[in-house]
Amino acid sequence: MATLNILVAVCLIYVTFLFVVAFAAERAAKQGHGGWLRSPLVYTLSLSIYCTAWTFYGAVGYAARSGLEYLTIYIGPSLVMVGWWWILRKLVRIGRSQRVTSIADLISSRYGKSNLLAVGVTLLAVIGTTPYIALQLQSVTLSFDVFSGSNEVAGSIVDRDSTALWVAMGLTLFTIVFGTRNLDVNERHHGVVIAIAVEAIVKLFALLAVGVFVVWGLGGGLSETLQRIDASEIGMWEMRGDRWASLIFLSAAAFLCLPRMFQVMVVENDHESYLRTASWAFPAYLMVMSLFVVPIAVLGLDILPEGSNPDLFVLTLPLATGREGLAMLSFLGGFSSATSMVIVASLALSTMVSNHIVMPIWLSATGGGAKISGDVRNVVILSRRLSIAAVVALGYLYFRLSGGGTALASIGLISFAGVAQFLPVLLGGIFWRGATRTGAFAGLSVGFLVWAFALLLPSFGSGVLISQSVMDNGLFGLAWLRPQAFFGIEGMDPLVHAVMWSISLNTLVFFVSSLVGFPSPLERLQGAQFVNVYEHSRRPQGWSGSAAQSEDLMIMAQRILGAREAQNLFEREAQRQGVSGYLPDPSPDFLQILERELSGSVGAATAHAMIGQIVGGASVSVRDLMAVADETAQMMEYSSKLEAKSEEQARTARQLRQANEKLTQLSVQKDAFLSQVSHELRTPMTSIRAFSEILRDSEKLSGQEKVKYSSIIHDEAIRLTRLLDDLLDLSVLENGQVNLNTQTGVLVDVLDHAISSALTGSSDTRLTVRRRKSHEVVHMTTDLDRLAQVFINLIGNAQKYCDADPAELTINASLSQGQMLVDFIDNGSGISKEDQAVIFEKFARVGEMKAGGAGLGLAICREIMARLGGSVSYLPGQGGAAFRVILPLAASKTTL
Ligand code: ADP
Predict the structure, then answer these.
(1) 874 forms bridges with which residues in the sheet?
(2) Quick check: CB of 860 below 6 Å from ligand 1?
(3) Domain 743-894's class?
C-alpha cells in the first residue's frame, strides 16, 4: 500500500511539474521571450506523441507475440519523414496559408468548405480515435494495477474503473486549462507542446533505463543477451510479406492522417524549416525507442512466470526483480506516453467537434451568425471545453464497455486502419485539382463502411456486434460479402484483407466519382489554392475591422466590375447610408446589392463565395480572390484572342477557296493545253509524215515541188523544236538551275535588238513600234540576253495578238524609286480582267487561238524576271494590252 501511495504521490508531483512547465511556457510566450519554446528540437519531440502507451508497453507485447513485426510501426513513419517530407511540407504550407485548424478543416476546406464533409470526417475521426483513448486509459490502469498487485497478496485493491476515471478527469482538466486558454487564430498551444516535449524525453529516458537494466542487469551483458535472443522464439517468427507491407503502409498513412499527429505536425508547426531537422531526428528518436524492445520481450518471456501479460513487461521486469525505483520511472514513462496522447488527441478532436458540429448548430439555433462579438468567443471556448470532456468521456466509456481485455496492439491497428481512410482524400486534395467533394464523400464513406464491416465490428468478437451467420455466410446471405473474405478471396490475414479492400475501394470510388462529377466554383478555387499552394501562399492575411472589410470588398469589386463602376456603386451606397467618404458600411443590404452586381460578371455561386470569404473572415485571402478575378480577366482575354483567331481562320479559308478556284481553272487550262500540245505536235508531225512519204514514194515530182515539200517539212520541224525549247527553258527556269550571264549594257541597245528579232523573220510586219529613245539610255548590269528574251516575247505577243488596224506598240522607259520601268502598251482590245489573272501561268492561253503559241511565253517571262530580281506584270487601264517590266537599279545603272 505504501508503494501505491508513493506512486500516487509521484504521479501528482509529476503532473504538477507538467502544469508548472506548461504555465511557464505560456507566460514566456505571452511576454514575448519564448523563442526557445519554438525550435526544431521541441517540434521533433512533440512529434513523439506518435509513440503512445501502445508503443511504450505494447511494442514489447507485440514483439513477444509476433516477433519483429512490431518494427513496421516504426518503419512507416520513418519512411514518411525521410522519403516523403515534401508531402509534409506541402501540408504544413497549406495549413499555414489556409489557417487550417484540424484535418477535418483541411479536408472540408479543400473540397469547397463543405461542412457536411467536415462533420463526416470529424465523426469518423472520433470513431477511429475513441478506442485509442480507451487504450491509453487501459494502459495506465493496468500499470497501476501491477503496482498495487505486486504488493498486496489479496489481489488488486485498486478499483480499475475509478483509477481510469481519475486519470480521465485529470487529463481533461489539463487539456482544458492549456488547450483552451486562448482562442488563438493560429491555434497554437505553447504550454501543451512544451509539456509534450518534456514527456517525450521522460518516456524515452524511462524505456532506455529499463532496457539498459534488462540487458546489463538481468541479461548479463550484450553478448549474452544476444545469445538469449538467438535462442528464443522471437528470432524464428516467420515474416509475412503481405502483413509487413500492409503494416508499414498503415503506420505511414496513420502518421499522416491521425488527428493528433496532424495537430502537432501541421497546426502547431511554427516554421516549415523545422521539418528538415525532424526528417532525420524523428526517425532517430523512433530507432532509439525501438532499440531495447526485443531484449525486454525475450527476457520477460524467460524470467517472468508463464502467463504474465507481455504488454506490461516493461513494468513487471523491474518490479519482479525488486527495482521499485526503476519500475516507478518506467511507470512514469508509460504514464507520459498515455497522457500526452490523450491530451493532444482530445485537443485535436475537440477543435473538430466544436468547429464543425457544436458551433454550426449553436449559430443556426440562435440565428446569431451575423453578430460577431465577444459572446461568440465565449461560446466557442465553452464548446471546446465541453468537446474535450466529451471526447475523453467517450474514451472512458469505451474502456468501461470493452472491459479492457484486448491486446494493446490490435486496438491500435484497428484505429490506424480507420484513420488511414483519410489518406486518398487528403493526398488527392493536395495534388489533384480534379478531386471533387462528391468524390471525397463517396470515397470516405465506402472506405469507412468497408473498414467497419471487415475490421471494426468483427474485432468485438463474432456474435457481439456482428452475428456469426454474417461472418460465415456474408451480409444478407451473400457469399461475396463475408467480412473476412470479400469477393470470395479467402485465407488472407483479416487485417491485410480489410486494409487492402477498404483503401483500394476508397481510392477507386474517390477517383471515379471525382472524374464523373463536376466541381463547384468554390471547390475549384480551393483546389487551385491547395494544389498550387507554393504559388499562392506567400502572404497569409486576415481581416480585423469592418472598415478593412469594406476596403477589401472595394478592391475586389474593382477587379471584377471595373474601377469606375465599382467606385460609383460604392459611392452611391455610401451616400444612401449617410456615411461620409466613398466606403459604405458592409451592411447586409449593401452586401446583397454588391453580390447581385458581381454575379452579373462571375456567376452567382462565385460571387456568393467571394463575398462570404471576405465578410466571413474565412481562410481564403483577398490575394487569392484577386487571383480568381484575374483568372476571369484572363479568360475573357483568352476568349477575345480565340475570336481573333477564328477570324484569321475565316480569312485563311477564303484565301484557300480562291487558291482552289484558281487551281481548278488552271487544271482545266492544263487539260486544254495538253490536248492543244498534242494537237500542236500532231499537226506538224502529220504534215511532216505526209510530205516525207510523198517525197519518198513519188518518183515523178518536179524539182520545184521537192523544194516546196522539204521546206514545209523544215518549217514544221522548227515549230516543233521551238515548242520543245520553250518547255525545256521553262522547266530549267522553274527549277532554278539557270546560270545567269551578267553583262553591262544600255537599255536602248537591248530594245533595238529585241525589236528587230521579234519583227524580222515574221512574214507579217504590220506592227508599228513607238519609242522615246532618249529615255532609254539606261546603263545596267544584268543578264542582257535573258532581258532581251523577255522583250522579244512581249513585242512578239503584241505582234501576234494586237487586233487593232493599224497595230501600234508604245514602249515607255522610265525611272521610279530606284527602279527601271519599261512599259509595252499596244492599241488592241486588251485582255479581260479574269484572263489577266491567268496569262502568266504556264500553258495559259486566252482568247482565240488563231496565231497563238503554246501559252508558255509570259510564264517564261515571269520566271526570267524573277531570276533577274525584278518582275513583269499586266498593267491594267491602258486602253490596249499593257505589260510592265520592272528591274531594280541595284542591278542597273543610269547615265542620265
Ligand atoms: P504564247 O507563248 O502562246 O504567246 P503567252 O504566255 O505569251 O502565250 O500569252 C498568253 C496569252 O495572253 C495569249 O494566249 C494571249 O491570248 C494573251 N496575250 C498576250 N499578250 C497579248 C497582247 N499583247 N494582246 C492581247 N492578248 C495577249
Answers:
(1) 883
(2) no
(3) alpha beta
> Burial level of 652, CB count in 10 A (0-12/13-18/19+)?
exposed
CB 584 within 8 A of CB 590: yes
Average pLDDT over residues 722-733: 82
CA–centroid distance, 658 to ligand 1, in Å, is 23
Q: Give distance in angstroms: CA of 846 to centre of ligand 1.
A: 7
Any ligand 1 atom below 6 A from CB of 828: yes
pLDDT at 156: 45
**Residue whose grid cell is 501561268:** 841
Q: Find out if CATH 1.10.287.130 is the number for domain 659-734.
A: yes
Does 282 contact ligand 1 (Cβ within 6 A)?
no
Cross-strand partners of 887: 820
Alpha carbon of residue 856 to chain centroid: 63
**The CATH number, out of the four listed (1.25.40.10, 3.40.50.920, 1.20.1730.10, 2.40.160.20), of the domain defined by the range 4-28+37-406:** 1.20.1730.10
pLDDT in tens, 401-415: 776 555 555 677 888
**How many A from CA of 783 to the centre of ligand 1?**
24
Which three three-digit cell numbers place residue 425? Answer: 482524400
- Cα of 847 vs centre of ligand 1, distance in Å, is 8
Q: Read out DSSP for 688-716?
A: HHHHHHHHHH-S---HHHHHHHHHHHHHH
844 C-alpha to center of ligand 1: Å?
A: 8
Q: If residue 871 lies in a helix (H) or strand (E), which one and from where to where?
A: strand 871-874
Q: Give the position of cell 546489463.
A: 216
| 478 or 494, which is more confident | 494
Q: Ligand 1: which of 766, 795, 858 to mutate, judged by most atoms within 8 Å of the beta carbon?
A: 858
**Which residue has the CA at smallest separation from atom 2 of ligand 1?**
857
Calculate the CA dihedral of residues 885, 889, 892, 895 and round it to 10 degrees. 110
Which residue's alpha carbon is at the smallest distance from atom 17 of ligand 1? 846
Which residue spans of the chain are classified as CATH 1.20.1730.10?
A: 4-28+37-406
The least confident of 224-228, 471-475, 598-602, 870-874 is 598-602
Instruction: State if residue 852 touches ligand 1 by the CB under 6 angstroms criterion.
Output: yes
Q: Where in the chain is the domain with CATH 3.30.565.10?
A: 743-894
Distance CA 54, CA 251 (A): 13
The bridge status of strand 882-888 relative to strand 871-874 is: antiparallel
Q: Which is nearest to 437 in space by CA: 523, 532, 504?
A: 523
pLDDT at 106: 85
For the stretch 111-165, pLDDT in tens is 877 778 888 899 989 988 888 888 888 888 888 878 776 444 334 445 667 777 8
847 touches ligand 1 (CB under 6 Å): yes
Enter the DSSP assignment of 466: B
On the 0-12 / 13-18 / 19+ scale of CB atoms within 10 A, 230 is exposed
Q: What is the mean pLDDT of residues 651-662?
A: 92
CA 858–ligand 1 middle distance (angstroms): 7
Model confidence pLDDT, tens digit, residues 663-682 = 888 888 777 767 766 776 77
Ligand 1 in reach of 796 Cβ (< 6 A): no
Please, where in the chain does CATH 1.10.287.130 lie? 659-734
Residue nearest to atom 11 of ligand 1 (CA): 845
**pLDDT tens by residue, 289-343:** 888 888 888 888 888 887 778 888 888 888 888 888 888 888 888 888 888 888 8
Q: How do 882-888 and 892-894 pair as beta strands?
A: unpaired
Most confident of 4-13, 137-146, 479-488, 818-827: 818-827
| Confidence at 285, pLDDT banded by 50, 70, 90 | very high
Q: Is the CB of 854 under 6 A from ligand 1?
A: yes
Nearest CA, atom 26, ligand 1: 801
**In the prediction, which pLDDT does 308 show?**
78
